Amino acid sequence: MATDTPKEANTYPLLPLRGLLVFPSMVLHFDVGREKSIRALERAVVANNLIVLSSQEDGQVDDPSVDDLYEVGTLAKVKQMMKLPNSTIRVLVEGVARVRIVEYTRIEDWFEVEVDMPEQPVSDHNDPHVQALIRSVLQQFEQYSKLSKKVDQETYASVVDIDNPDRFADAVAAHLPLKVREKQDLLEEFEVVPRLERLLQILSDEREILELERNIHQRVRKQMERTQKEYYLREQMKAIQRELGEREGRSGEVEELREEMAGKPLPESVRERLERELERLERIPQASAEGTVARTYIEWLLALPWLEQAKTRLDLRRAERILNDEHYGLEKVKERILEFLAVQKLANRVTGPIICLAGPPGVGKTSLARSIATSLGRPFVRASLGGVRDEAEIRGHRRTYIGALPGRVLQGLKTAGVRNPVFLLDEIDKMASDFRGDPGSALLEVLDPEQNATFSDHYIEIPFDLSNVLFITTANNIYEIPAPLRDRMEVIQLSGYTELEKLNIAKRHLLPRQKEKHALKRDQLKIPDSVILELIRYYTREAGVRQLERLLASVCRKVARKIATDEQTKMNITAALLKEFLGPHIFHFGEIDLVDEAGVVNGLAWTEAGGDLLNVEVSAVPGNGKMVITGQLGEVMKESAQTALSYVRSRVHDLGIPPDFYERVDLHVHVPEGAIPKDGPSAGITMATAIASALTGRKVRHDVAMTGEITLRGRVLAIGGLREKAMAAHRANIRMLIHPEANVKDLRDIPDVVKEDIEFRAVKHMDDVLELALVDGPPFGVNETLFASPDMPGLLHDSSYQGGGAHQ
């Protein structure tokens, strides 16, 4: 213990320290500003210049209490005091000894404490254990001083010269940048050996931390040096290129792309990807082919509308006006579209079910989709899927392939320039699949509102949000669309037009458009309604109006030629002039089978092009019971012919036909236009009527058409496409249409003009069909011309024949 330590007194003033701690033998100066601290300091100076220094646990407390001070402090001697202009006192103190506070004898004006100064064990510096600890601490402190900038070599040298282990340990602890709590732990350790061991551990930990910091700083410095070097070289290259008046090379390309990226709104993930790709592009040599691939990818990322949106106009009155102006008829279809838009307006977002416009060619599916886009004020994009058989056409190719590109979906969005266009996927039923993939399956994600918010294209490799796109699809035959894909769409069926609708479409849309295309003024060409009607009846037979527009274009071309050669200044097209331009009539409207014949029946078929008339002919000749079926018929239609024959055999007594006719007569069932494949069960009652007519000799009404599936018991089952078939019957001037009773519900979809011209008769049994279709005449009986043939002698007088009964 120092000689100046008073032994007769153990009560001293106490000075609380904030953020400081004084070790014995440590000389330190600090400023004192608190009133209680100043009084304690003055009290110490008046007495014997001794004062207890104790650190606060929380340095933020301005007026500490007894509980805020540590129990162990340092008895110090005040060496010097100096008053400062700001009413504070700068004091220089020297630590004397460790003390333990026993009791606070005064706490009002200043702190005064009674302390206990335990006798500190005398440490033998010759003890090998102490010497080993001192050497280890000194070695660690030396390494620490080399790594740390807070301890200089002079400090280290002053510590080396200390022989006393106590003073050595306190000197080392005083020069370490430790927290007050850690220094307090060392101060509270009165024995030197544990204190040295604790110091050794602290120095070892600090040295490891400093080494890690140094390694980190070295790596950062190297990186900064490399970055600065690259930046300096780039700036030099730019300066050289500017001096040469050029902007070439990789750096020029990258700079242009960076400028474009800076001016485009992009999601953060896309911007980060672009930064990486631009850095990669900079490192690629100028002559490398990989640079072109990388630049193309970057340009695609910049070209896609990641955040750009078109403003949507959900004005239902305007939408209705546009649909009515651009499309005549299709009332139910337009009503459904307006309902769809009304729901989107109430929901305040144009998404929802995927619309599929299904119908024959030329009825306006594509133009309807374009009208929807116009009414919404959004860009229109069309992608034709006809013949697409590669999944990469939808999802894109991976960048590993030469010439890789994104799929048609993202290509369309790039063309639109916004992420919420009206996107038409045309001819979705014409897709195919093979070993290269199934594009229909790839479209499942595109057309699913629950999945397309994170659509992944193989080329872009960044999820793209398609949830704002209004997808519309078109198809001729929805049954050609894969079932999972069809399930994601709401089908709106479009059927063919009536003659009156075609006439109005030609007058309002087709003819004015063709006049404009062929530079004909309004008064230079006039076509009366009667001539347009003749054009529709005798030169076209289609569900849509595409062929009609082509014929009108042909008329306009011929008129334009005559006007251009100064033969005429204006023309009024007559029926005779129409024949001169287009030749003789192609179709014979109203003249189909003007004569009733036996074995010839008008059937009705539904195709992708709409409804069509399907004649069924049956010829019965002497033979040995064979039945020949021709006309490119499918398996289902052949089975219908067999079913029809079995029905007729089951009714031989009612029809008046010999029971063994099937052993004596050959039947030939033929459906004309044999080059066209035909299939389906709806011609069953047509074939049964034709067979019954051929065998009995009863003629079939030429103005009657029929459709329906037949069973072995003669029941007539429901069919599909009644509206399209009714339109075909109306075009062919049919006066009566026989249909299954189960299809009565479909009559509401048939236009009123068709219902006025055609008598619709619903039947449940084949007997009703025969009664309506066969002309009035004698009761059912045998075809005498057939069965009186010389090749079949005596058949009419066969005693076993009991036919000839009246039809019930």
Fold and architecture overview:
- By secondary structure, the chain is an alpha/beta fold.
- It folds into five domains: 106 residues, Archaeosine Trna-guanine Transglycosylase, Chain: A, domain 4 (Roll), CATH 2.30.130.40; 57 residues, no CATH class; 178 residues, Rossmann fold; 84 residues, Helicase, Ruva Protein, domain 3 (Orthogonal Bundle); 188 residues, Ribosomal Protein S5, domain 2 (2-Layer Sandwich), CATH 3.30.230.
- It has 28 helices and 22 strands.
- The strands form five sheets. A seven-stranded mixed beta sheet has the order 16-17-15-14-18-21-22.
- α17 runs parallel beside α19.
- The longest helix is centred in the N-terminal third of the chain and has 53 residues.
- The radius of gyration is 52 Å and the shape is elongated.
How do you describe this structure in short?
This protein is α/β, with parallel strands linked by helices. The protein has 5 domains: 106 residues, LON domain-like (Archaeosine Trna-guanine Transglycosylase, Chain: A, domain 4), CATH 2.30.130.40; 57 residues, no CATH class; 178 residues, 3-Layer(aba) Sandwich (Rossmann fold), CATH 3.40.50; 84 residues, Helicase, Ruva Protein, domain 3, CATH 1.10.8.60; 188 residues, Ribosomal Protein S5, domain 2 (2-Layer Sandwich).
